[in-house]
Amino acid sequence: MGIVRDAVRNLILESAMGRLEFFMHPGMRNMWGGPFNGQRFRQRIFFDILHCLTISAIVETGTFRGETTALFAATSLPVYTVEINPRYFSYTKMRFLLNRKNVCLYHGDSCTFLRKLCEDGSVPKENVFFYLDAHWGETLPLREELEIIFSRWKKPVVMIDDFKVAGSGYGFDDYGPDKTLDLDYIDPVVSAFNLSIFFPAVAPSEETGEKRGCVVLCRECSAIRLFMKMNTLIRYEPHGLSLQDDEKECIEKRLTG
Ligand SMILES: C[S@@+](CC[C@H](N)C(=O)[O-])C[C@H]1O[C@@H](n2cnc3c(N)ncnc32)[C@H](O)[C@@H]1O
Prior knowledge:
Number of helices: 10
Strand order of the largest sheet: 3-2-1-4-5-7-6-8
CATH superfamily: Vaccinia Virus protein VP39
Bound molecules: S-adenosylmethionine
Largest sheet: 8 strands, mixed
């Protein structure tokens, strides 16, 4: 009984703190210098993806104080985002209370949230952009998030923040054995769903903000378009295989009809 009472008290207190922080410390939202950790090149990657593919909705895991969510909301696409921490959830709820009618904010765990979205008939199930950023603690939900997304959505495009870009100085998260955000960690999902892998096309010296690494994952049908039309991403070729120029030209012709 005492545990439940303490949990409820903590929830109420944390939610109140979140609301208070929204009014007392508006600068807090900009902790990392803007959307996508203040990374301008990453923002370009995002807008390139929107431009190249017909994105129907955006799903974010790990809302924090809604800084990247605000950029997503500005696209006017439906935005679904989830935050587990009651303090950050309350903060962001205040932030989007009066405007941004296209933002659906959920409180809870990211995998439960993704399963709920699967069951919700009003949520688009094709060409959805996912931004996976819910990694900040003991449990790492990333692999399960990927399994849910690639088994339940058609043609999803997934960007994972804080991911190791091999051979570069980009920052990445490492929570210990089998909890490093790198290619080994996602390999079971990449193999099971035969996914294509992309990394940022520039070195960290050409990036701004926190210079965190990222990876973009998608199925081959979306990958061809990204590969042909985007110069902000480079395709990761594990076996060093790459399309020849005449093959690219042939695909380009097919894409443009
Ligand atoms: C790096 S911050 C997200 C930053 C945010 N996406 C942005 O761009 O401003 C990570 C957030 O994920 C949340 N989080 C951690 N584990 C989670 C989970 N299992 N489900 C939902 N949110 C989670 C944390 O509380 C934290 O607010």
